[in-house]
Specification:
Rossmann fold; 5 domains; 8-stranded mixed β-sheet; alpha+beta; 727 residues; 5-stranded parallel β-sheet; Immunoglobulin-like; 14 helices
């Protein structure tokens, strides 16, 4: 069925008819003026026809076709099969079932079977968990609605069973608009609760990549409570079915708590551990109460160098603490301009003078020693900077009353210093009464300062520690640093004096302790806190350097726990057969992705002579990557693993996004309701009137072919005038 339709107003039509009549009169006059010749008459009639067609074009003609479908109308039932549908929050009678189970029950019962006499019913799943690791996981409601419309020749309605948690693709509003234009309503069933049900959720576990045998491993975790009461519980670290560590936690009502559990590994190798929170009686979803992770336990010896000028008390007790640590191999150097170098067991006659001699050290302590005659040289300062930034070692500044830290100005160590020194107080600040080191908000939960098993207990320990009578002259911390502790009372225009400050420097770390009285922490408790603090400092500062190590190679990743799509930087330190840094080698890395694909990188040597090579790659997948390093000159290779975290779009336990479904239903002139309203939706579908014939319009006035025809007629008319001699 077809007809011609015009869009015009009567005043414009009257004016147009008058203009056409005037054009006819002008054509007649022009024909008479040229002798009333037959050829001229034909041209004038042709011109008048062109004018008439232009007038018709201004009336906006459209050819309208009406199509009535001959196939049976279709109803598509879209079932969300994404991971978020595993959330258990659908109340089914006296039971609470997962969303996916409720959808499965509806597919088995099939309440829409009653529509099959009138409609062709098609049931489809969307947002299935991909089996191919290269595909993204997520819920794309827009693609599901678009696909239903594109695959159906006579779509009458859509039934959408979903939690509305769209997190992939375009906004479903786009597909809803297309359905509205096609007169296809969406009956949306909001599967799930729009608020959190009673639940305890173990949100995350931030475990390190490796730990040392017999040494304390700090495993932070985050717990979220969706209960309207305070919860006192015990978080357990499980090795198989045995609890190897526990942590008592108090979670306020509807709050989140960050805590940590301490673990002492007893065997080497890779271990799979589980952090578990016991379920509460009223808890609905018990699937998110535990998380597993893998950690590698190794037996390693950390090499530490302590450099000072005089054997002050801080130096003596620090030296004893390190020498008694079975996992630490410590060496000492005493450099004083008026004294000869210190001698004795584990003493070095001088500061290591070459990169080869300095590079084995994981951590270097710099006490009250400076750059000058019979002390450190500018070359030594350059080597220390390279050791930290390129080799990934740690550098600890513990200034003293001699004020030699000011001599670092103008040397390579100045840029590493994490605080700005007060030049007016060269010998520091002597206090009339003992003062405490007060932890900042960052310091209360930092692994470096954790002297107890919880943040509150840790803060209490630091408040009870013996105070100090002297501190270094400091004005403020430099940008990009972390202030862990400050003077409890002393302040200037920048605030309280920062006395415990850390910062990252290249591949390594730097620590500043602005007092020389940590040895006083032994009062009444012997080595309980003093040894623990310095042991944690050494292990924390050498962690990155020992993350992946094998004979002839040391490999560091940055960041340590990357996410999918985040650039990963590889920093490899390569040694020759003699244990010296290799500076002119060819080092390659083969990166094997979880899907089996691999790429080969050639690492670039970093200037400086430290045997450091760097490269980067972009992981497009999540999962476990294998990194194989190889050096052509030495013939050695090593393998390591890197766990790349995926972009978590689908999370179980979150409330249903009912507003999204309501918007889709509203745009398409459909309805949205709870699961128990599905039967009513089926009745409404059965009562839908037959779809009106589809009207398709062809706009002649804006059609390119119509314009081409008018242009062609004008061209023919112009040529005719030339032939007739009218031009």
């Amino acid at each position: 069925m077809g007809k011609l339709s015009f869009g015009f107003s009567w005043p414009s039509a009257i004016v147009g008819v008058a203009l056409v009549a005037a054009a006819a009169w002008l054509c007649v006059q022009h024909w008479r003026r040229h002798g009333a010749r037959p050829m001229v008459l034909g041209l004038e009639i042709f011109r008048w026809v062109i004018v008439c067609l232009l007038f018709v074009t201004l009336l906006r003609p459209e050819w309208v076709n009406l199509y009535k479908p001959t196939t049976q109308p279709e109803v598509v039932v879209l079932c969300d099969a994404s991971r978020s549908m595993t959330t258990r929050d659908v109340v089914d009678g006296n039971n609470v079932v997962p969303r996916a189970d409720w959808v499965k029950q509806q597919r088995e019962v099939a309440p829409w079977k009653a529509l099959e006499k009138r409609y062709q019913v098609r049931v489809e799943e969307f947002s299935l968990t991909p089996t191919n690791v290269s595909l993204e996981e997520g819920t794309d409601i827009n693609a599901a609605l678009d696909g239903a419309l594109n695959r159906s020749k006579n779509l009458r309605a859509v039934v959408l069973l979903s939690d509305g948690d769209w997190n992939l693709g375009k906004s479903p509003v786009a597909a809803a608009t297309r359905l509205q234009m096609a007169n296809v309503p969406v009956f949306a069933v909001a599967v799930g609760s729009d608020r959190y049900l009673p639940d305890i959720d173990l949100v995350s576990v931030a475990a390190p990549a490796y730990g040392l045998l017999g040494e304390q491993v700090f495993i932070p975790f985050t717990v979220q409570s969706h209960l309207p009461r305070e919860v006192n519980t015990t978080v357990s670290l499980m090795d198989g079915g045995v609890a190897v560590a526990q942590k008592k936690v108090t979670i306020p009502a509807n709050a989140q708590v960050q805590e940590a559990v301490m673990w002492y590994p007893q065997r080497e190798g890779q271990t799979t551990l589980t952090v578990r929170v016991p379920p509460e009686a009223e808890e609905i979803n018990r699937d998110n109460n535990e998380r597993r992770f893998q950690i590698t336990v190794r037996r390693e010896t950390l090499r530490v160098l302590v450099v000072d000028s005089l054997p002050r008390w801080e130096y003596r007790y620090l030296r004893n603490a390190l020498s008694r640590d079975p996992m630490v191999d410590s060496k000492c150097v005493l450099l004083h301009p008026d004294l000869k170098a210190g001698e004795g067991k584990n003493y070095l006659p001088q500061f290591p003078s070459t990169k080869e001699a300095l590079s084995p050290y994981d951590v270097v302590f710099l006490g009250d020693v400076g750059v000058g005659e019979n002390e450190l040289s500018a070359h030594d300062a350059e080597m220390l900077k390279g050791l930290v930034e390129q080799q990934g070692s740690g550098l600890i500044f513990i200034p003293g009353r001699r004020g030699r830290q000011l001599s670092f100005e103008g040397t390579a160590l100045e840029s590493l210093y994490p605080v700005v020194l007060d030049k007016t107080q060269v010998e520091g600040v002597t206090l009339p009464t003992p003062s405490q080191l007060q932890l900042t908000r960052t310091g209360r939960g930092h692994w470096l300062t954790m002297l107890a098993n919880s943040e509150d207990a840790n803060a209490a320990v630091w408040q009870q520690l013996p105070g100090f009578w002297w501190c270094a002259g400091v004005t403020k911390a430099k940008p990009g640093t972390e202030v862990l502790g400050v003077h409890e009372t002393y302040r200037n225009q920048w605030g309280k004096l920062p006395l415990l400050v850390t910062r990252a420097a290249g591949n390594g770390k730097v620590l500043f302790l602005g007092t020389d009285s940590a040895w006083r922490w032994r009062a009444g408790v012997e080595d309980l806190y003093h040894y623990r603090f310095w042991g944690q400092v050494v292990r924390w500062m050498s962690y990155q350097r020992h993350r992946a190590y094998d004979q002839g190679f040391r490999l560091a990743f940055g960041p340590d726990s990357p996410s999918q799509g985040e650039t990963v930087f590889l920093t490899a330190t390569v040694f020759d057969s003699g244990g010296m840094p290799l500076n002119d080698g060819r080092v390659t890395a083969e990166i094997s992705a979880p899907n089996g694909r691999s790429e080969r990188l050639t690492l670039t040597a970093v200037p400086g002579g430290w045997g450091v090579y760097q490269a980067s790659f972009l992981p497009q997948l999540s999962g476990k990557f294998r990194v194989k390093l190889q050096c052509d000159q030495t013939g050695r290779s090593m393998e390591s693993e890197l766990l790349v975290r995926g972009v978590v779009r689908e999370e179980a336990g979150k409330p249903a996004q009912v507003e999204v479904l309501r918007e889709i239903a509203g745009i398409t002139r459909g309805v949205c309701g709870a699961p128990e309203e599905l039967a009513r939706f089926v009745d409404q579908l059965a009562a839908l009137p037959e779809a009106a014939p589809v009207e398709r319009r062809v706009r002649l006035w804006s059609n390119p072919w119509w314009g081409a025809m008018l242009l062609g007629m004008l061209t023919v008319y112009w040529i005719g005038r030339k032939v007739a001699g009218l031009i």
